[in-house]
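Example 5.3 — Amine oxidase domain-containing protein
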Amino acid sequence: MKKKISILGGGIAGLTSAYELTNEDNWQDKYDITIYQMGWRCGGKAATGLGKNGRIEEVGVHIFQGWYHNAFRMVKEVYKEIEENNLAPDTPFKSWRDAFIPNPYTFNTEYDKKNKSWHNWTMVFPNNTYTPGTAIQTDFFTLIKEGLGIVIATLVGSPFQKKKNGKKKVISKVLQKMFFKVNVPEREEKNPENKSNTITNYILGKVSKSLELIIVKLTTYRYRKNKSIFINLLVKVYRGLKNFFQIGAKHCGNKTKKLRRVLRMIELGLVCVEGIYTDVYDSKTGIYNWDAINDYDFREWLCKHGASRELLEFSIVRFIYYGTFGNVYGGNGTIEQGKIGADIGVKMVTKISNYKGCFVWYLAAGTGGTFLAPLTLVLKNRGVKFEYFHKATKIAYSDNENIQEIEIDVQVDLKKEISEYNPFIIQKGIHQWTSEPDLSQIDPVQAKRIEQENINLESSFSDWKPVGSKILKKGKDFDLIILATSIQPIKYIAKDIISKNLQWKNMVDNIATTPTLNVQFWLNKTDKELGFDHGQWGMQEGQYANTVIYEDYLYSWTSMSYLEKIENWKNHEPHQISYWCGVWPENTGVKNHGIPALKNHTHKWMNSNMEWFWPNAIKNDEFDYNLLCSNKETLSEKFDDQFFQINDDPTMQYVLGRPGTNQFRIKSDETGYKNLFFAGDWTDFGLNVGYMEGTVQSGIQCANGIKRRFYNNILSQRNLL
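Solution (predicted structure tokens):
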């Protein structure tokens, strides 16, 4: 019998669940699926819209990493289906490769407390020949091998780094053969007669050859089977390299930063491996019990296994905290030192060397145009129904094994002649969401009020009253429910269940979230005109800078200038587009919370911090707001005309992975109700912190749970990559 499935929330998890359920031949014989979405667009915490001048406005900085295996698999299938069914005939993206831009560069900025200055360390992750989203399983030993390859790449430095004596030689061919299937071009040494470079390259060659022999031993059968031999060998590697570098450092000129970084990377790998085989790995069963270290903060766990003080502030460790918005925590009215579960930190470290193709992939038309709109197009074409402007308000408590009733507010009425809302506009052949609802499709009286009163139909704080409500009944309107909102709204949607169910109460009480911020600038000068020297920063011309661990509060900066050709500026066209994001400091004593406070933060931050990247953007110790693209007249108006976003709404707050919280997360199919399933980055899906790949995994697990429970041995379940 066909089952009606109601999905509450059209974020990535809800959309993925629907995709997996409909990824079967004749799925319509099994399901009737409806997605209920508050407001006018899908996407959740990754929502995107087009604003004035057709500019892309995001809620944060979103990229894919090369280890997003399940997300990439879905993306590849989606683009293939769009092309086969001609769903976007004018799109410039004929395949996923057109829509995703590889970028191997990451700035690991470091702060020198002694000299009170920042230093850059450009990491260039070698591209490899693996295809993202493919089922190539990599064992832990291979990750260690490739991780050491990254250490060598780090030691050699960026092949594009400009120095006073010329440019550095490319990563050696030994690296290509030894660690990766890489495609790295040879470059010519500008000053081969330079004594310092000659000695350095000689040393690097010796190190590479020595490590090649070590890796052969590491990957032999007997070392794989014997944990103690493996760890002892790594200790010898670390100690030997440390002694070698200390002796050779005096011959390398001013290379101490590089040597220190390599030593820290080796130390991090050693501490993690030793800790894993001490606390996580069961040699009798061969099972890794990651929950065994979830009660520890990552830094605390590193200390337990002998990490140096310097390692705790090492840029890679900081990257783990800042990249998961775990650098500070402002819950319960206090500011705390940031924390993240040790299991999450260790897994993130191992993921670094498990990327395919390229380490970072940019979304060529923003998150919406590249990922979410194509996915929604495919679902719509398959027959999934979408009910926009439908806000779930209550899942009624039930004292038996099935939920019996759901309440949903209808936010607006559509015009009488419109049967369903069309959420897309097509700009330059690409389907995109909009930053505001299309009022031309909404009842004219309601549309006028929304416009005049500046109503935000995506806000939980809005005073807008619903125009109606729906009470959905089990057996009539739904058989199964997928709860795919974020964690915070569940406190209100399911308050009756929470009051009677300790498991649910522990979940919502202990899984923490944090508000985040996003700022976007459009500038009328290029990076080069702003004073950014790609060579000095170790980059090729035309590539895009990004860093995740710079100065608070806008510590994550990404150049998005490739979006210029996707946007639709008629005047004042930008030549540089940048996004900044970070944790919103809601409890730091800042007055006048909200957008005015964020603008004040941004103004001060730009004056103090962007000169390092764009020296020509600062005049008289202030950022030159004449650089901003806008048809406004005054500098303050130009500044206000940029895009500022605070994600403090319960639906939009980022889900943290704080220590000791895995035990309170619930798996998708363990809700306590037979007909209710969870999907979202707040579930127990594995690497329990907020990121797009994890959200996709949760959606897959949700769909698999439904198939197991109701269609076991009939419908195939998708394995996670």
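Remark. The longest strand covers residues 516-523.
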